[in-house]
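SAMPLE LOG
Freezer: B-3
Tube label: C17
Construct: single chain, 402 aa
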Amino acid sequence: MAKKTIVDVDVRGKRVLMRVDFNVPLQDGRISDDRRIRMALTSIKSVVDRGGRLILMSHLGRPKGDGPEPALSLKPVADRLAKLLGKPVGFAPDCVGQDAQQMAQALTDGGVLVLENLRFHKAEKKGDPEFAKQLAGLADVYCNDAFGTCHREDASMVAVPQAIGARGGAKVAGFLVQKEIQYLSEAIRDPNRPFVAILGGAKVSDKIVAITNLLDKVDAILIGGAMAYTFMLAQNKAVGNSRVETDRVKEASSILDAVQRSNAQLMLPEDHVCGSEFKAGTTTRNTDDVIPDGFMGLDIGPRTVQRYCDQVKQAKTIVWNGPLGAFEIEPFDVGTRRVAHAIAEATQEHGAVSIIGGGDSAAAIEQFGLADKVSHVSTGGGASLEMLEGKKFASVELLDDK
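STRUCTURE (predicted):
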């Protein structure tokens, strides 16, 4: 990557303000999955082990922004981080103000402080420069290790590094951001072929730009999830009660036309696993290309599964963003599960580079126990999708060049 990383900075005795993505799931105040904390440990330890004074900032959940909300406090995250590091971790009751300033000033070499939830302040989402100056005043160096929010222009992502840079401070990437961008950008720029993209999820509107951008880069795009039914409607096929975006049918039709002018193959489901309702225990039915009234498509059918798996096993580069069915509910998890296993097989046995694009895809690959069998599982669903769309991030562009 062309940007400097945290290893390029001598952090001894310096206060390092690191933006991390500690937006972890909480149940009754307890962390149910600490993967995002563990993913940041390499960057955290790089600072701590080299005598830096580390201040960590993050958002958690979707608070209203009117002040503290105890259920969305980062205190449980600070406690979990202390256990993972095997050392004390301080916790500031706010991310700005006198307490945060005093605790940041009191840090000694190798010390760690977690600030309270950034989004308890509306100024964070607004990118407010005055709020950013308060945060920037806590430290000498800025490090972005929050890929999951790299596509956003929140204060902590853009205005804070701008403020630190304005006074001559370093602004660098963490190892997680470096890894994410290298995997995703290199996969698109110079892929080993065949290059297969698997795009699923509920809305075709979420993936239109990505599909359009990928058409001249990939050898095949495999479509699944509810978005497939909008494409079916564009082909004048019966979709029963399936979820469709009727306002996106014209765009889906335009994509199908664009495929004819490209060298890429766009593969749509040729059979379906349907249910009468979107819930466990519903009446199920396998159908061919037509979905009857009273049923909705909830997974790709067995012929489509085999066809997609065959494509995946031949691939040398695989990018997957979005599940192929309602994988949370049996028996509609089969398509997503089988294709996930095919991705793992292509990676482990045939040396394919496989990138799982965050969000529900990451949740699925974790649920199936295959996260360590693929090349990379992204921590950012929205950010990884925007990279597939070919977008650049202001939060990364403003970091110091090597």
